[in-house]
């Protein structure tokens, strides 16, 4: 009788241990999926911000430069998943147009843009998922 109780306790303990490991593995896989998705969104947002920056008319009056870009990514049901913030700063060949966030002006080199992308989850996971990407691109 004592041996039977001992065997049942060992089997129950093993089962609880396996369930905990399965739960941890599932959560880890889910968090990895969301982190990879955030990395891909950061890459896409960088390309989108560069495309928008190249389309800006720097000879226009007012605010000719794209200095900030905010994007919200929703899931299929419309629930908010990720917030993407892009900050752009420029280095111009000539004088910096008014309204542009300029790192340097009249560098004598090709005009460049520094793009900082931050992708932050909207509390869709118990782990905080935040991706930062910085790139220096030619305009």
Which SSEs are present, and which pair or pack?
Elements: H1 2-54, E1 68-74, E2 80-91, E3 102-104, E4 112-121, E5 130-138
Parallel strand pairs: 2-3
Antiparallel strand pairs: 1-2, 2-4, 4-5
Mean pLDDT across all residues, rounded? Answer: 82
Order of helices and strands: HEEEEE
Classify the secondary structure makeup into a structural class. Answer: alpha+beta
Helical percent range? 25-40%
Largest sheet: 5 strands, mixed
**Overall 3D form:** rod-shaped
Query: Over all CA atoms, what is the radius of gyration?
Result: 25 Å
Number of helices: 1
Number of strands: 5
Low-confidence stretches: none
What portion of the residues fall into strands of 2 or more residues?
A: 25-35%
End-to-end separation in angstroms reads: 81 Å
Describe the structure.
By secondary structure, the protein is α+β, with helices and mostly antiparallel strands. Helices cover 38% and strands 29% of the residues. Strands 1, 2, 3, 4 and 5 form a five-stranded mixed sheet that branches. A hairpin with a 5-residue loop joins strand 1 and strand 2. The model has no long low-confidence stretch (mean pLDDT 82).
What's the short version?
Helix content is 38%, strand content 29%. With 139 residues, it is an alpha+beta fold.
Main attributes of the structure:
five-stranded mixed β-sheet; alpha+beta; 139 residues; rod-shaped; 38% helix
């Amino acid at each position: 009788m004592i041996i039977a109780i001992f065997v049942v306790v060992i089997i129950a303990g093993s089962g609880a241990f396996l369930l905990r490991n399965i739960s941890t593995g599932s959560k880890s896989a889910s968090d990895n999926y969301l982190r990879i998705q955030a990395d891909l969104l950061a890459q896409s947002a960088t390309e989108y911000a560069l495309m928008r920056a190249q389309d800006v008319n720097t000879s226009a009056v007012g605010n000719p430069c794209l200095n900030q870009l905010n994007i919200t990514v929703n899931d299929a049901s419309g629930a908010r998943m990720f917030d993407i913030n892009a900050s752009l700063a420029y280095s111009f060949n000539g004088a910096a147009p008014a309204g542009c966030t300029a790192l340097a002006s009249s560098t004598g080199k090709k005009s460049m843009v520094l793009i900082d992308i931050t992708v932050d989850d909207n509390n869709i996971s118990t782990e905080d998922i935040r991706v930062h990407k910085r790139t220096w691109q030619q305009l």
